[in-house]
């Protein structure tokens, strides 16, 4: 039995807490910036923290074996520093997307995940601390395509792209923006996992004897086009044919109005968004560019083979 601290109280944090409470004997606490009576009513221990108060963070992390973070930016950096100083053994930062190695050094993001990984690497290599860490990689959350988007599940609220229809397709309005091919002319694929299954995988990984620097999980790997086709099929419509022309691509989309975006077109659109100082559009385009560059794609989900979890497919979800 170990003591686990979950930083954050959003949808993913709650899935992790739920499976800790119902499937293990591990003790856990939830770190929150404000009281959460709806969570304490479930019998969960919620501890209010101030991420600018290092002494307070250290006190509340004393005796914790593993920290699982769903917070980001400066709050996560402060959490990492406090965890290392009180000899926390393992730390899982708020990654939960594509493989970190595929992310460029400088990205437009309000979360600055690269800085957190760099800080964790410093502590892991320092003989005084030796705090191990792993980045949980899961690709794209299925919840991006849910009614209300990820925001409806209180996931990714600081990402700038958590709303309904802000990534790849808007199921409600039946419109899709699809990067079919990458710059090398290869079909773009995406790895995806439901947030609930991510919670199950993370909890199962707590019992692994060793954590590598990255643990990858995947519910399903699909081409970007097949993601849209699956949504079309699940809607069960018999539609009129809709054709959209974007950059000389002619698409015979059924059900959804599909627009294809070549990598160079996405970069041009990003340039215009920067000129207009449209930060929200820049964030949306950054995510599509990351998709076109296959940064949400991987073929070796090592965690799937290490734990006894059977994730749901995209169509089942």
Give me a quick take on this structure.
The protein has 317 residues and is of the alpha/beta class. The protein has 9 helices and 18 strands. The radius of gyration is 20 Å and the shape is globular.
Explain how this protein is built:
This protein has 317 residues and is α/β, with parallel strands linked by helices. The chain contains nine helices and 18 strands. β2, α2 and β3 form a beta-alpha-beta unit. The radius of gyration is 20 Å and the shape is globular. The two termini are 32 Å apart.
Uncertain runs are 238-254
Radius of gyration (CA) equals 20 Å
Number of strands: 18
Instruction: List the strand order in the largest sheet.
Output: 3-2-1-4-5-6
Q: How many DSSP H or I helices?
A: 9
Q: In this structure, how is the largest beta sheet organized?
A: 6 strands, parallel
Order of helices and strands: EHEHEHEHEHEEEEEEHEEHEEEEEHH
**Distance N terminus to C terminus?**
32 Å
| Nearest-integer average pLDDT | 90
**Could you tell me the strand content as a percent range?**
15-25%
Instruction: Output the structural class.
Output: alpha/beta
The backbone outline, from C-alpha atoms, is: globular
Write the layout of secondary structure elements.
Blueprint (H helix, E strand, L loop, with lengths): L2 E5 L3 H13 L3 E6 L4 H4 L4 E4 L5 H8 L4 E4 L3 H13 L4 E3 L20 H13 L6 E2 L1 E3 L2 E2 L27 E2 L4 E4 L10 E5 L1 H11 L8 E3 L3 E4 H12 L5 E2 L2 E2 L2 E2 L2 E2 L2 E4 L2 H13 L3 H14 L25
Parallel strand pairs: 1-2, 1-4, 2-3, 4-5, 5-6, 7-12, 8-11, 10-18
Antiparallel strand pairs: 9-10, 11-13, 14-17, 15-16
Helix pairs in contact: 1-6, 3-4, 4-5, 8-9
């Amino acid at each position: 039995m170990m003591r686990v601290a979950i930083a954050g109280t959003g949808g993913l944090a709650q899935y992790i807490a739920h499976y800790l409470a119902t499937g293990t004997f591990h003790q856990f606490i939830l770190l929150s910036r404000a009281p959460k009576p709806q969570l304490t009513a479930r019998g969960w221990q919620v501890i209010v923290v101030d991420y600018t108060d290092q002494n307070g963070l250290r006190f509340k992390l004393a005796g914790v074996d593993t920290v699982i973070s769903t917070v980001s930016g400066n709050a996560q950096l402060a959490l990492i520093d406090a965890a290392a100083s009180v000899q926390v053994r393992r730390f899982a930062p708020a990654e939960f997307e594509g493989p970190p190695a595929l992310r460029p050094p400088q990205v437009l993001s309000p979360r600055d995940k690269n800085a957190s990984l760099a800080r964790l690497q410093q502590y892991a290599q320092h003989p005084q601390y030796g705090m191990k860490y792993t980045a949980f990689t899961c690709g794209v959350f299925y919840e991006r395509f849910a009614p209300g988007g990820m925001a409806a599940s209180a996931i990714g609220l600081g990402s700038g792209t958590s709303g309904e229809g802000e990534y790849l397709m808007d199921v409600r309005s039946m419109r899709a923006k699809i990067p079919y091919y990458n710059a090398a002319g290869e079909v773009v694929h995406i790895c995806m996992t439901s947030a609930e299954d991510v919670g199950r995988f993370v909890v199962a990984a707590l019992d692994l004897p060793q954590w590598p620097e990255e643990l990858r999980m995947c519910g399903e790997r699909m081409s970007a086009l097949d993601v849209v086709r699956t949504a079309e099929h699940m809607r069960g419509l018999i539609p009129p044919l809709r054709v959209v022309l974007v950059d000389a691509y002619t698409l015979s989309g059924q059900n959804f109005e599909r627009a294809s975006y070549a990598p160079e077109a996405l970069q041009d659109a990003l340039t215009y968004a920067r000129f207009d100082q449209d930060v929200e559009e820049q964030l949306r385009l950054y995510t599509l560019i990351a998709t076109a560059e296959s940064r949400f794609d991987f073929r070796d989900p090592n965690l799937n083979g290490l734990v006894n979890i059977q994730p749901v497919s995209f169509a089942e979800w």
